[in-house]
Inverse folding.
């Protein structure tokens, strides 16, 4: 059994007018839509104002003549100014919210030939947003040479996925936008490509905060700028891209940098300062390392994101800034929030769209295309084209995917390596000797970091001397942690309780101090000597 066809339309106060017998020779759009031979209208929802009640009576009577099977339902629809967009849209919106749409059993058409242009635009917007689940019905008078009071009609479906050529055009644009976010790099990692496709959609459809998570050097800053450029190409933003590393902000200087200040707000504030949030009005604000913000800045940022308003330091006048927020972090914000170091409500607000950028070690298949990208960047900067010879290229790719390649600095490491090799390349060709030299330098740097970082190395050297260099990576990392705990506690027992807090719960008689004493003795250390060396 087919669905009933329901038409929703405004009475035309001018085009539908006519009371004499000659009215049948005129084209009247509301009557004409029920005179179409191949368009059956089972029900007409007719909207009109009280002052046009006589026209409505005549039109409804004529509809009973031309289409007796059509049921007409009257709706008094009052707006004081049919050219006031806000009033008209609100009135149509209320009508749509109250109307008992039943799309499973009825097909809906909205007749937009009648009414003011503002009314037609409002109906179009409500159909496009699916507040009214309908297609558009447009009626037109026939040509003068073949005059027919019924005229013609056309139906337009705003579901663009139904139009193959348009859908293909949008698909190509989406592919181009995703490629733009990848800087044109032909990445091969499926998970990364899927993430970029999602980010492209979010970047063009939503102005809500975006959170980029990932290790240092994974490309958070570059990707944030590309999202901004993509939105600017789509004319979704008009302001600037404003970037700040929150790890560089402390105290009053942090609030001043972000929110601005008034002259005299603190010592050294000799002039007014606009602040980065105000600079980002209409654009994008990228807060890298957002986990480093202090509690006061977090509270002020939350209000600025939610209400688009904030107070500069030392001012009692609110400022307004409508910006999109993108945050970057390499720290686990959930853990920080659990410890009270990061506001849970702020995390909930910026965690709407979260993307984790994988490190280079997680994308070994993407090293080769990124290698080409870095060579092109060097050529752009220097005006000098540098290439690998075949053996050197194969050697570099082999080493870059070996167990030695930790890529701790991720793409920053790759960029630095390509830059150094390009400078050393004679005749614009990178040979195997340059690759081996650079690889030895880079792996030594990684090795120092993996041995507990330079700080860990200095710490262990301070307590073990030259013997620290003989420790395995595992022992060095573990011992460095133990030494730090011992140096900040007041007794051997307190240090033991902290170090063995979990395992001691499974023992009936825990002797944490003795357990720690025996561990330190393996390295020729004791708690007292660690405290003395600290002093």
């Amino acid at each position: 059994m087919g669905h009933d066809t329901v038409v929703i339309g405004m009475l035309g106060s001018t085009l539908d007018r006519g009371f004499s017998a000659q009215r049948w020779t005129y084209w009247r759009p509301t009557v004409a839509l029920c005179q179409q031979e191949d368009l059956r209208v089972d029900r007409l929802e007719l909207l009109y104002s009280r002052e046009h009640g006589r026209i409505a009576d005549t039109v409804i009577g004529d509809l009973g003549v031309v289409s007796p099977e059509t049921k007409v339902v009257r709706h008094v629809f009052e707006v004081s100014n049919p050219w006031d967009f806000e009033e008209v849209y609100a009135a149509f919106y209320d009508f749509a919210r109250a109307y008992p749409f039943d799309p499973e059993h009825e097909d809906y058409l909205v007749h937009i030939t009648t009414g003011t242009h503002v009314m037609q635009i409002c109906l179009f917007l409500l159909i496009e947003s699916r507040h009214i689940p309908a297609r558009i019905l447009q009626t037109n008078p026939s040509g003068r040479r073949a005059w027919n009071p019924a005229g013609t009609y056309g139906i337009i479906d705003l579901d663009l996925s139904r139009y193959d050529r348009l859908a293909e055009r949008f698909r190509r644009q989406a592919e181009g936008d995703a490629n733009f976010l990848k800087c044109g790099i032909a990445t091969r990692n499926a998970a990364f490509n899927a993430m970029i496709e999602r980010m492209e959609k979010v970047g063009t459809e939503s102005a809500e905060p975006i959170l980029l998570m990932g290790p240092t050097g994974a490309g958070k800053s570059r990707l944030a700028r590309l999202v901004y450029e993509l939105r600017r190409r789509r004319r979704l933003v008009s302001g600037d891209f404003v970037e700040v590393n929150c790890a560089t902000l402390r105290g009053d200087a942090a609030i001043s940098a972000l929110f601005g200040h008034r002259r005299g707000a603190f010592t050294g504030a000799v002039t007014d300062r606009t602040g980065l949030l105000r600079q980002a009005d209409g654009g994008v604000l990228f807060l890298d390392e957002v986990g480093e913000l202090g509690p006061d800045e977090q509270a002020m940022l939350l209000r600025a994101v939610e209400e688009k308003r904030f107070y500069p330091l030392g001012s009692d006048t609110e400022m307004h800034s409508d910006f999109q927020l993108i945050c970057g972090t390499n720290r686990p914000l959930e853990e920080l929030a659990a410890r009270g170091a990061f506001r849970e409500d702020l995390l909930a607000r910026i965690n709407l769209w979260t993307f984790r950028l994988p490190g280079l070690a997680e994308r070994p298949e993407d090293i080769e295309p990124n290698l080409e990208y870095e060579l092109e960047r060097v050529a752009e900067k220097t005006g000098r084209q540098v290439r690998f010879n075949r053996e050197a290229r194969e050697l570099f790719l082999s080493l870059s995917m070996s167990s030695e390649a930790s890529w701790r600095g991720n793409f920053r490491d790759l960029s630095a390596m390509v830059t150094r090799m390009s400078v050393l390349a004679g005749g614009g060709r990178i040979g195997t000797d340059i690759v081996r030299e650079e690889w030895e330098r880079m792996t030594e740097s990684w090795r120092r970091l993996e041995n507990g970082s330079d700080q860990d190395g200095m710490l262990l050297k301070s307590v073990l001397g030259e013997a620290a260099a003989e420790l395995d990576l595992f022992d060095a990392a573990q011992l460095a942690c133990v030494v730090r705990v011992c140096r900040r506690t007041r007794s051997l027992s307190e240090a033991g309780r902290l170090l063995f807090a979990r395992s001691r719960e499974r023992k009936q008689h825990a002797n944490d101090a003795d357990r720690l004493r025996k561990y330190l003795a393996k390295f020729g250390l004791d708690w007292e000597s660690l405290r003395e060396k600290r002093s």
Notes: The two ends are 91 Å apart (CA to CA). Residues 432-450 form the longest helix (19 residues). The chain has a mean pLDDT of 87.
